[in-house]
Amino acid sequence: MTQLTRSQVAQMVDHTLLKPEATHEDVRELVADGERLGVFSVCVSPSMLPLSTTVAVAVVCGFPSGKHTSAVKAAEAAESVRLGAAEVDMVIDVGAAVAGDFEAVERDIAAVREATRGALLKVIIESAALTDEQIVGTCQAAEAAGGDFVKTSSGFHPSGGASAHAVRLMRETVGDRLGVKASGGIRTAEAAREMIEAGASRLGLSGTEAVLDGFPA
């Protein structure tokens, strides 16, 4: 794989702050840092919208449990898009995936897709909580429902965050038709490189600068 530069990796990053105790001042600092670092987007909670920034704005939906009704998720996502979000990262009903009810997973995603026409939709599957078979079924449901990306993790699930194995399996399932976002626990350049080599086209990072410092200028 060709050696990626710092700026190339930065353009794959969703610079993220989703802590419940985050303040509007914290988010202003996130935005300033994101612009300085040259990231692709900043990813925040819906209550932090609207934002004034030169980078893309991503927002989470049904976060972090995914156990909201589809109607609530759709309304939340629609409001976020109205307030300027260009991308929506939604959490599926992980229990439906564990139960093998991929039709329910697809319906859930489709409801949010319908509410977010014109925005990019990333589908958080909580890969660490799923078997390989469940990961494949969920990725197929996300594609069938019109998702643009599948994403490993919320970063809040006790089962863990991203793994290279999950990223590789997700990429094999969606091919080049969808993006794959690795997020959760990626704190070093080595970890980021491993995810990219496994097939990630986007990275969700909170410690972005430390990761980017490990890549050549």
List keywords for this structure.
globular; 9 helices; 41% helix; alpha/beta; TIM Barrel
Provide the fold topology.
Blueprint: H1 6-10, E1 13-16, H2 24-37, E2 41-44, E3 56-61, H3 70-82, E4 87-91, H4 94-98, H5 102-115, E5 120-124, H6 132-144, E6 149-151, H7 164-174, E7 179-183, H8 189-198, E8 202-205, H9 208-212
Parallel strand pairs: 1-2, 1-8, 2-3, 3-4, 4-5, 5-6, 6-7, 7-8
Helix pairs in contact: 3-5, 5-6, 6-7, 7-8
GO molecular function: deoxyribose-phosphate aldolase activity
Keywords: Cytoplasm, Lyase, Schiff base
Main location: cytoplasm
Descriptive notes:
With 217 residues, this protein is of the alpha/beta class. It has a single domain, classed as Aldolase class I (TIM Barrel), CATH 3.20.20. 41% of the residues lie in helices and 17% in strands. It has nine helices and eight strands. β1, α2 and β2 form a beta-alpha-beta unit. The radius of gyration is 16 Å and the shape is globular. The relative contact order is 0.16.
Gross morphology: globular
Describe the biggest sheet? 8 strands, parallel, barrel
Write down the oligomeric state. single chain
Number of strands: 8
What's the number of structural domains?
1
Number of helices: 9
User: How are strands sequenced across the largest beta sheet?
Assistant: 1-2-3-4-5-6-7-8
CATH superfamily, by name, is Aldolase class I
CATH architecture: Alpha-Beta Barrel
CATH topology: TIM Barrel
Indicate the CATH class. Alpha Beta
Helix content: 40-55%
Query: Which class best fits the helix and strand makeup?
Result: alpha/beta
The chain-level mean pLDDT equals 97
Give the CA-CA distance, first to last residue: 17 Å
Report strand %.
15-25%
User: In angstroms, what is the radius of gyration?
Assistant: 16 Å
Order of helices and strands: HEHEEHEHHEHEHEHEH
Which stretches are poorly predicted, pLDDT < 50 over at least 5 residues? none
